[in-house]
Amino acid sequence: MSLETQPATTSSVDAKPSPGTAPARRRMTARRRLIAADRKLRELGSIASALASTSHPYMAHIVPMRRCNLACTYCNEFDDVSDPVPIDEMRRRIAHLGRLGTSVITISGGEPLLHPDLDEVIKAIRKTGAIAGMITNGYLLMPERIERLNKAGLDHMQISIDNVMPDDVSKKSLKVLDAKLRMLAEHADFHVNINSVVGGGISNPEDALTISRRALALGFSSTIGIIHDGSGQLKPLGEKERGIWDKVRKLTRRSYSRFNQFQEAIANGQPNDWRCRAGSRYLYLDENGIVSYCSQQRGYPGIPVADYTTEIVKREFLTEKSCAPNCTISCVHQVSYIDHWRAN
């Protein structure tokens, strides 16, 4: 799995099964293979549709609630007081994303698992024909909850794990979440990606290597990200962080980020020359139903999703964003990369 001969240290994480139990590695049963095949076909169809036409969004992040049960110091996308968006309003917003032809709708936050009607949110996404994703800290996952997500039709889940042991920066640690990962390996029919991070005050960058290895050992995919500053802008890696980042990428050769140069330039502290398609191919829909370019540029263009039109999508496809050269928002990079070959 790695160019190194010695495994990453995991002494602080109970990564081994108890005596007499089977390893909690993801088992590709016939049922899971069929679900994965159907998901892959829908994903290929969404990419084909995006290549054929630029008049619809490819991905939207939608926030059903801003509240989170954690308080990671680098995060500016949560509070501890907000109420969940009522389910009827969530259905209306998702229907508008469907009207625009959005291919992938990912539930973000805050912490989406705190929403009392999250299963209904997922069902509403699938009803539009979109691929349903979710970004979560994973703390609230239990076997019964995972089975409900299966039944609702969730396609993808991403969990970001910041360190092996919790610290003052982040409580999203492998020590706490490893039991949740084993539950997912056992019960989840959806695709699971574990994202580790470097930069932004993470005290032990080598933890990213341990986290990535654990994710792959459980049968999940693994990616690594670079924590941006408070405005989503470039914050280059130090020498040690860069070394860990390279090692993790060698473990995860199939990661989408290996097919573009955005992350490479960010790691080197260099700006990127690219056309950001936020507001068009990528939409960020906040808890108030307002469409923004991304989570770090809230308020621009600042249009309610009910008023968003195909004409606005086409306009924003061509609109240059001044923040683009030093942007580190990888989801926007990846979505925009679909159209990197187009002249405009």
Q: What is this entry, summarized?
A:
This protein is of the alpha/beta class. The protein contains ten helices and nine strands.
Structure description:
With 344 residues, this protein is α/β, with parallel strands linked by helices. Helix content is 34%, strand content 13%. The chain has a nine-stranded mixed β-sheet, sandwiched between helices. α2 links the parallel β1 and β2 (104-107). The longest helix has 23 residues, at 30-52. The chain is globular, with a radius of gyration of 19 Å.
Topology:
Layout: H1 30-52, E1 59-62, H2 87-99, E2 104-107, H3 118-127, E3 131-136, H4 143-152, E4 156-160, H5 174-187, E5 191-198, H6 207-217, E6 221-226, H7 239-251, H8 262-267, E7 282-285, E8 290-292, E9 301-304, H9 310-318, H10 330-337
Parallel strand pairs: 1-2, 1-7, 2-3, 3-4, 4-5, 5-6
Antiparallel strand pairs: 7-8, 8-9
Helix pairs in contact: 2-3, 3-4, 6-7
List the total number of helices: 10
Distance between the termini: 40 Å
Instruction: Give the quaternary arrangement of the chains.
Output: single chain
Share in helix: 25-40%
Question: Which residue ranges are poorly predicted, with pLDDT under 50 across at least 5 consecutive positions?
Answer: 1-22, 255-259
Shape: globular
Q: Order of strands across the widest beta sheet?
A: 6-5-4-3-2-1-7-8-9
Q: What is the H/E string? A: HEHEHEHEHEHEHHEEEHH
Gyration radius, in Å: 19 Å
What portion of the residues fall into strands of 2 or more residues?
A: 5-15%
Q: How would you characterize the largest beta sheet?
A: 9 strands, mixed
The total beta strand count reads 9
Mean pLDDT over all positions = 85
Q: Structural class of the helix and strand makeup?
A: alpha/beta
